[in-house]
Amino acid sequence: MTATLYRATFLHTPESPFTHADALRAETDGGLLVQDGVIRARGAFADLRAAHPDATVTDLRGGLLLPGFIDTHVHLPQVRVIGGLGLPLLDWLDQCALPEEARMADVAYARGVARDFTRGLVGAGTTTALVFGSHFARAVDAFFEEAAQTGLRAVAGLVVSDRLLRDELHTTPERAYAEGKALIERWHGVGRALYAVTPRFSLSASEGILDACAALMREHPGVRFTSHINENTREIEVVRELFPGARDYLDTYERAGLIGRHSVLAHNVHPSDRELGVMAAARCAAAHCPCSNSALGSGFFPLRRHLDAGVHVALGSDVGGGTGFSLLKEGLQAHFMQNLMPGGVPLSPAHLLYLATRAGAEALDLPDVGAFEPGQQFDAVHLAPAPGTPLDAVFRHAPSPERALAAAFATGTPGDVAQVWIGGQTAFTRA
Ligand SMILES: [Zn+2]
C-alpha cells in the first residue's frame, strides 16, 4: 500500500507537561508519513517529501492537526438527555438519566442511540473512548457493532447494579457475571474493541455485584475496570451508610479487588488522602469531567492533590451529566475551574492537549495512541474552522502553533472538526 504524507501544522504531547517542561512538540509545515494506518516517520514536510517522493501528499495546511481525542468517561445511553441543567447528581439521575436508560431495553431504540452516540463522539474529534455502556446486554452489543462500523476505539461494558435505581435496571450477581462473561468473549480484543467491567457505582452495587465484577477481572486479564467515585457529597454519605465496614468510598472497590493499573474512576471530586495514596500506588487513574462537575454542582476537582499524590488524571466528557462531546470544551472548563479554585493548577495549552489525548491513552494503557510518535496509530483530528469565523481569523494570524492551540481550546467546537482519522482510515468528514 502506498504511503500517505500528511502536510500540516501539528502539535502533540508524547510526554506529560506536568513532569516535562518541554512536553509540547509542534511542527509548522510538518509531515507525518503514514502507511497501513501506522505513523512511519515524522518531521519537516520538505525533508519527508525528499525522502519519500512516491508518497501521496494530503495537504492539511491552514488548520491544526492534533492526535485524536481520548474521552475517558462518557455514557452511551445519555446522548439524548444532554442538557438537563439545574439538578444535583441523584435528582438528575432519577429525573433525566435513568428513565432514558430504561428505554435501552428496546434494542431498536438502543441501536439508534448507539448511532447518535458514536457520531457525536467521532464528530467531536474523539477517536478512543471509555464508555459506560447500558444495563442491557443487547444494547451493549449494538454499541460495539456501531463502534466497529465507525472505527471508534471503544472500551466499554455492561453497566451492572442491583439496588436503588429502577427495577428494570437491576440485575443479580449471577446474571451480571454470566452476561459480562458472554460479552467479553464476544467483544474483548475483537478489532479495536476492549471490554470494561462496569458496576455503576457503589451506591447501586452490592458487595455481591462487586464480587461478580472482580471474578470477571480475575478470569479475563486485560479487561479494563471503570466506575464512579466521590462525585457528590450526598452520594458519598449514602455509600458510607451502605458499606459501614469500608474505610471510605474507594475501599468499597478496593476490598473487592477492583483497583489496579487497568482501573479508571470518574470524578473523584471529594477524595481523602488515603484514597489518593491507594490510587497512586495501584496506578488507578482518575477521569476528570469538569463540565459535568460544573453542571451538576458537584464541586471543584482537586487536581493539585491528585498530582501531588501521584494519581494519573485524564479528561472525560461525562455525557449526559456533561454538556457535550467536545474535549476542547472540557479542556477549557478544566482551565477555568483551576483558575478559579484556591490552590488550582494553572493549565497551559500543552496541559490541555495532554489531558485530552495522551493522558487518556495512559489511563487506558494504550501505548499505540495519543500522540504522533513513529510506530503509533494514525488517529488524528484536523481542526479547520470555516472561513470568516473568529477561530479562522486567529489561526491565520497566530504567531505560533501554541497560540493557535490555545485558541482552539478557548473557542473551538465540533463545528471546527474538518476530518478525523482512526488507524489511518477516515472516520468523519465535515459535510
Ligand atoms: Zn458518569
Automatic annotation (TrEMBL):
Binds 1 zinc ion per subunit. Pathway: Purine metabolism; guanine degradation; xanthine from guanine: step 1/1. One of its GO terms (cellular component) is cytosol. Its cofactor is Zn(2+). Residues 65-426 form the Amidohydrolase-related domain. Residues 30-55 form the Aminodeoxyfutalosine deaminase/Imidazolonepropionase-like composite domain. InterPro entries: Amidohydro-rel (IPR006680), Guanine_deaminase (IPR014311), Metal-dep_hydrolase_composite (IPR011059), Metal_Hydrolase (IPR032466), Metallo-dep_hydrolases (IPR051607), MQNX/HUTI_composite_N (IPR054418). One of its GO terms (molecular function) is guanine deaminase activity. Its EC number is 3.5.4.3. The keyword Metal-binding applies. It catalyses: guanine + H2O + H(+) = xanthine + NH4(+). Coiled coil: none annotated. It is an enzyme of class 3 (hydrolase). Keywords: Hydrolase, Metal-binding, Zinc. Transmembrane segments: none annotated. The keyword Secreted does not apply. GO terms for biological process: guanine catabolic process. It comes from the Bacteria. Belongs to the metallo-dependent hydrolases superfamily. ATZ/TRZ family. Catalyzes the hydrolytic deamination of guanine, producing xanthine and ammonia. This is Guanine deaminase. It comes from Deinococcus arenae.
